[in-house]
Amino acid sequence: MDSFSIMLLEAFPSCASFSGQSIEAALCNPLEGSENKMVAAAVTKNSAYFSRFQVKYRRRRAGKTDYRARLRLTTQDKNKYNTPKYRFVVRFTNRDVVCQIAYATMAGDVIVAAAYAHELPRYGLKAGLTNYGAAYATGLLLARRVLQKFGLDKIYEGNTEDVGEDYNVDAADEGPRPFMALLDTGLKRTSTGSKVFAALKGALDGGLDVPHNEKRFVGYDRDTKEFDAETLRKYIYGGHVAEYMEEMMEEDPEKYQVHFAEYLKAGIEPEDMEDMYTAVHEAIRADPSAEKKERTKPTGESKKWHAVKLTYEQRKENLKAKLAELMASDE
């Protein structure tokens, strides 16, 4: 027996009972030749387990909130006391784009300002309210709206030149600093070219300060590590939609009439796309304020879901009527 085997026997005395096997084989197959074999028992979840089971948060059970991301987006530094930590929230539905500026409190989130893609027809965008260009316009609308609310729209105009280039707002020499917010994408996948970053680009060009880089904008090539600003500009102005319209118009005119019915109804042609988006951006910058609707009372008779409380005299008269009815029935 060599010195290595002697060391193993000193470390594992039980291996000495495996007669006819080498030390190495006994260590590799500890159950072979052993009378005391261990049996794998299934772990039973008894009442003690279930009485201590802690369910997850309701919105986690519903698959609506990523609490790991939310914790990092809402936790504020202790030395900043009650300073809000603003989030630039972007959400997508089947027919709408939602952009909000929000901050968290103990009682729930507070929405500072909001912009929706269904507001864009007011600015001249009649169709395509969920594409890349619409997401950019919605982010731009929110940025100009929240800056107008805080009186910063005149100080920070944003990017009004080449929208294809990446833009970072610079702090003014005199006056307040730029409005800063953190991008909150929710559960949407943040892949390169996602429409989430179209809304982000609109907010940046509108004058908001959102930490970012150009690696997720459409036009960034991961292999060459280069960013093509012209590709991003084409998507912002709906150039990809115009190309698809022209291609479908030549290959399948019938499908084109159905697929782009809303565009045709609004009189939008492929060559008009860039001019339309340019006019939309100018209209947003001219008046980003939300349209206020007058509140009117509902017409018709109002419904009452609870019985009207009676006065003492009314209850007294009702009691007299019931007594009189009972006495009449006895007679």
In which order are the strands of the major sheet placed? 3-2-1-4
Strand content range: 5-15%
What is the gyration radius calculated from CA atoms?
34 Å
Helix content: 25-40%
Can you describe this structure?
This protein has about 325 residues and is of the alpha+beta class. The chain is about 40% helix and about 10% strand. It contains 13 helices and six strands. It has helices at about 5-10, 25-30, 45-50, 60, 65-75, 130-150, 195-205, 230-235, 240-250, 255-260, 260-265, 275-285, 310-330; strands spanning about 85-90, 95-105, 110-115, 180-185, 220, 225. It is extended. The model has no long low-confidence stretch (mean pLDDT about 90).
Quick rundown:
By secondary structure, the protein is of the alpha+beta class. The protein has helices spanning 3-11, 23-28, 47-51, 58-61, 67-74, 132-149, 195-206, 229-236, 239-251, 253-259, 261-265, 273-286, 312-330, and strands spanning 87-92, 97-105, 108-116, 182-184, 220-221, 226-227.
Write the layout of secondary structure elements.
Elements: H1 3-11, H2 23-28, H3 47-51, H4 58-61, H5 67-74, E1 87-92, E2 97-105, E3 108-116, H6 132-149, E4 182-184, H7 195-206, E5 220-221, E6 226-227, H8 229-236, H9 239-251, H10 253-259, H11 261-265, H12 273-286, H13 312-330
Parallel strand pairs: 1-4
Antiparallel strand pairs: 1-2, 2-3, 5-6
Helix pairs in contact: 6-7, 6-12, 9-10
Write a concise keyword list for the protein shown above.
extended; 6 strands; four-stranded mixed β-sheet; alpha+beta; 331 residues; two-stranded antiparallel ribbon; 9% strand
